[in-house]
Design brief:
The complex is a heterodimer. By secondary structure, chain A is an alpha+beta fold. Chain A has four helices and nine strands, in the order βββαβββββααβα. Chain B has a six-stranded mixed sheet, sandwiched between helices. A six-stranded antiparallel barrel of chain B has the order 15-18-17-16-19-20. Chain B has a five-stranded antiparallel sheet with strand order 6-7-8-5-9, with helices on one face. The chains are: A alpha+beta, B alpha+beta.
Amino acid sequence: MSEPNSLKFAKTHEWVLQEDDLITVGISNHAQELLGDIVFIELPELGRSVSINEPIAVIESVKAASDIYAPIQGVIEAVNELLESEPTLVNSSPYESGWLFKIRMSNSKQTDHLVDLATYQREYVE
Amino acid sequence: MTLKSPLYNEHVALGASFTNFSGWEMPLHYGSILNEHKAVRSSVGIFDISHMGTIFVSGQGATDWLEAYLANQVSDLQQLQSQYSFLLNASGGVIDDLIIYCLAENVYLIVPNASGVDSVFDFLKQRLPEDSVKLENRSGSMVSIAIQGKSSEALMHAIFSSIKFKELKKNQLAVIEGFVDSIVIARTGYTGSDGFEVFTDRDQGLQLWKSFLNSNLDIDVYPCGLGSRDTLRIEAGYPLYGNELTETLTPIQAGLSLFLKKSLKESLRANFNEDAPKISFYKILEKAPPPRKGYELFYDTKKIGVVTSGSISPTTKKGIGFALVDSNVSLNEADKYTILIRNKKYSLMFTKRGII
C-alpha cells in the first residue's frame, strides 16, 4: 500500500489531512500492520474538546489495546461510525474508509510538530 | 536463549509474525489471526506445536509408576488412546496439565506445555525407579503439528492413505512406521473443531508440514499461529496453563475434576474449602471492548473476581473467556454481573464452558 504524500504524520503514528481548519485523523498503514486484526474501536464523543497528545480513542486488536492521541487541539466534529460494526476497515483501508475522527481546529497554525511522509518513514517507521 | 522450532525457516518463508512463547520464537500469525481462526472453523488450519514437550516413558511397570504420579487414572487408558491429565504439587495445585498417549503396552508419550517441560521431566526423573522404567525427554528435538478444522480428516486422508480415519475416534491414535522414526497420529486438539495432532522426528516433520500445505486437494489449507490457537481454545472453553491453571489452584477449582481419578478427587474434596474461588466461563452480553486478563468482575458494586483469559469471539463477535470468581456465582443469571473496562461496566453472565 502506498502512503499518501498529501498527509502529515505524528510520531505516535496518526495521520492528519488538513482542509482549512478541519482535520481528518487516522492511523498509518505501518501502525495498522503492527496492530494486526482490529476488533474494537472506541471513538471520542462529538463536541468534546481535545488537546494535543491527549489520548482520545482506543484501538483494540486481538492481542492488545492501543491509545490514539489527538494530533492537534480542537473540538471533535465527526467520528467514523462505520468502524463500530466494521473495525477492520482500519486494516483494509487505513487512509480512506478507515479514518477515525475529524477535529475542528481552534488555531490553524498549530500543525508544525507534524511531519511529512518522508520524515515519518525515516524517523518513526523502523 | 530463544528456542526455535525445526520448522522456523518455513514460518519465515510464509511471512509469519513471531512472538516469544515460553522461551520459544513461534508464529503469532501469518497475516491475520481472524482469518486463521475462520480457516479452522470452515476449512482446515495447520499449527506448528513443536514447542510442546514430548516425554517418553516405557518399560515394564511404566503404567503402575505413572499411576502413582499423574492425576487421572492411567490404568483406564487403553492402548492407542489418549487422556487429559495433570501433574499436581503437594497441595493439589497444578504443576502442569498434559496429554498422555498410550502408544503400546507400557509405552507412553507425555505432552506437557512448553512452560512445563522442565518441571514435569524433573519431577518424574527424581522419582524414577531403579528397575526397568525408561524416561526420555525428546522435547525440542521433535516436530509436532496440529491439523485442525472441518476438513482436517480429508487432508489427513490425502497424506496418510493407509489409515482408516473414519474409524479413528476422538482421543484415539495410530502409530505408523516412517522412514526414520515412527509417526504418532492422534485425533486430539485444542480448537474445539475436529482435528489431529502428529508427532514425529524433525526430518519427517518438515516433509509433513510441506505436504500438508501442498496437498493438491480442493481444500484451502492455512498455516495458523498461536494467536488463533488462543481464540479457538477460548471459544472451545479449554483452559490455558498460566491463566486458568496454576500452582495455587486445584483442578477442582479449575472446574476440571472430571479428569481426576476417584481417590484423588475424594482426597482433594475432603480438604476443599467451599469458599475458595473457582474458574468460570463468562459471556459479555453487550457490545464491549475485548475482555483481557486482569479486568475485574462485579456483582452490583461488589468485586467478585478477575479475568484470566478473554477475547472477542471471532464467531459471535461478543466478549467471552474465563475468570477466577467467588465460589457462589450463579450460571445463566443475566441481571447483575458486570465487567469493568476503562471505567465502564458491561453486563455479562456465567455459562457452561465454550460457545461452539
